[in-house]
Amino acid sequence: MRRAAQQIVRQQRSIGARIPAPVGGWDAQSPLSAMPADCAVVLDNWIPRAGYVEARRGFQSHVTGFSAPVQSLLVYRGAGPGADKLFAAAGTAIYDASTAGAVGAGVVTGLNSAQWQYVNFATNGATHLVCVSGADAPRRYDGTTWTTCGITGTSGAVTLDQTKLIDVTVMNSRIFLGEKNSLRVWFLASLAVDGAAGLLDLGSVADRGGTLQGIGTWSLEVAGGVTQFFVAVTDQGQAIIYQGSDPSDATKWALVAVLNVGKPLGRRCLLKYGAEMVLLTADGAIPLSQAMKIDRSQSENIAITAKLQQAWAQSARDYISNFGWEACLYPAGQLAIYNVPVTQLGTSYQYVQNVQTGSWCRFTGVNAFCWGIANDRPYFGAASSVCRWDVGGADNGMPITCDIRQAYTDLGASGRLKQFQMMRPLFRTPNTITASIDMAVDYADVLGATFPSTNVAATTFGVWDTTLWDVPLWYDDNTVIANWISTTGIGYVGAPRVRIVIQSALTNGAYPEVPVQLLSYDALYTVGGQV
Fold it and tell me: Which ranges in the chain are annotated with CATH 2.130.10?
């Protein structure tokens, strides 16, 4: 039968076709037979941009020598460009991680937890970084000095134990603090960072019971302007929303909604997404403004992660109890990063969205426990270091494997048997590339050709106005490599499979960037008769 098929296609002339790069991103929801041609079944370490996909950059150690895993990155927002300060919590201490190099002595010591939540809060006199862990007294940093907070509170028979405060947020010039193993939220006086706190008990409105998982605030445009809302999320999958300025005054505070949502993923389950608030749940990443309009059964239709629904749901089932679920926005890279902890303080990967196009990809090889953006740069906490991501052409000296398995396409010849003969991927890069290319056919999950271990030769480029002429090569981002490569496969539909491995050589203490963009493919094939 196979020989007969080969004979049929040999009788036909070769036909050329153009296949777009997978700018539509990773699609873990559409059926294989109905997936758009510009999407991908696998898109690992390729970032979809408008018009091309590009290999992600690597990471390098920023601060090293921690004796315990870095589980929290705390960012103090300084005044002016470059004024942010980065702190890392590991073991029983908090360390200054602002400057690259070996870790110094802890700036806060004798702690019971390395899992801290924080908020920046500006008063009339200073900006404060206010931090809570649920196992220690809250700490605050004013740009110069770390101080132990003094927060008290009594309401009836309930007395606040400030070591049990697990989350913190700010709304209308007021700090709110969530209490561990309860449904109690405490709030300070306006513009206060210490002192007596009032009680907001959610037990009467959280009809599913449970305990607090996280708190936050978000803004929504309503008639007459923009209104802020307070959000408390329980471990039983309820989001309780209030509006107002003073919880102690019934005329200035009102319950807006109690929403049933999926179970939240970890303590860091809320992401401020511009004016929107996104809740990380087992159902997906849900915008609260949309969740207010529909029933939970329709969550899949409004989730930001709808295109990843099956992969997200599987990850949530498998890893929901692991510490490390977290999301952060990286504005300079136009990315939203969702951390997925595969093993507790071990392996992780990231679901990453281009916030301009909405397209998704997955990062592998970045075993992050927590994330932070300081001075517009992304950092993550690892087993014994703080690393800076989006820099260079290697993952701390290790190769970056970039893998694509694109959507299947019939190339406009539905029901016609095809023999795929050659492919020509169009890469834009100043480097020499040896890529593994093949065509998977008829929905077979194959790897194709043998993939090389290292196949991109890094080149050191000059920097304008700092490097002498004629010494290095100057970077030309218009260099396009378009070489024909023989492929195999006979079938009715085909899917390009591309893998490159990036690893630049250490130069002057760094791994130079290896820019690679995939623009599209040309395919050459012959067709036989119709089915």
Answer: 62-327+374-393
Q: What is the pLDDT of residues 152-177, one digit of tens each?
A: 999 999 999 999 999 999 999 999 99
Q: How far apart, in whole angstroms, are the C-alpha atoms of residue 170 and residue 367? A: 31
Domain 62-327+374-393 has CATH 2.60.40: no
Model confidence at 462, pLDDT cuts 50, 70, 90, reads very low
Q: Give CA–CA dist 323/343, Å, rounded.
A: 9
Alpha-carbon gap, residue 517 to 53, rounded angstroms: 6
> Exposed (0-12), middle (13-18) or buried (19+): which is 219, by Cβ within 10 Å?
middle
Q: Is residue 458 pLDDT above 50, yes or no? A: no
Q: How far apart are CA 137 and CA 165, in angstroms?
A: 8
In contact, 485 and 424? CB cutoff 8 Å: yes
Question: How far, in Å, CA of 257 to CA of 234, rounded?
Answer: 14
| Residue ranges, CATH 2.60.120, the chain | 2-57+402-530
SS3 labels along 85-138: EEEEEECCEEEECCCCEECCCCCECCCCCCCCEEEEEECCCCEEEEEECCCCCC
Q: Cα–Cα distance between 196 and 189 in angstroms, integer?
A: 8
φ/ψ of 7, rounded to 5, equals: -65, -35
Query: For 92, what's the count of Cα atoms within 13 Å in the CB-facing half-sphere?
Result: 4
Calculate the average pLDDT of the chain.
89
Q: Cα angle at 87 between 86 and 92, to 5 degrees?
A: 170
Average the pLDDT over 273-300 and give the result: 84
Residue with tokens 């990453």: 352
The yes-or-no verdict on residue 11 having pLDDT over 60 is: no
How many angstroms separate the CA atoms of 134 and 178, rounded? 9
Beta bridge partners of 499: 403, 436
> Tens digit of pLDDT for each residue in 416-433?
999 999 988 999 988 777
Domain 2-57+402-530, what fold? Jelly Rolls (2.60.120)
Instruction: Inform me whether the pLDDT recorded for 133 exceeds 90.
Output: yes
Determine how many CB atoms are found less than 10 A away from the CB of residue 344: 14
**CA 343: distance to chain centroid?**
17
H-helix or E-strand containing 255?
Answer: strand 253-260
Bridge partners of 169, per DSSP, are 176
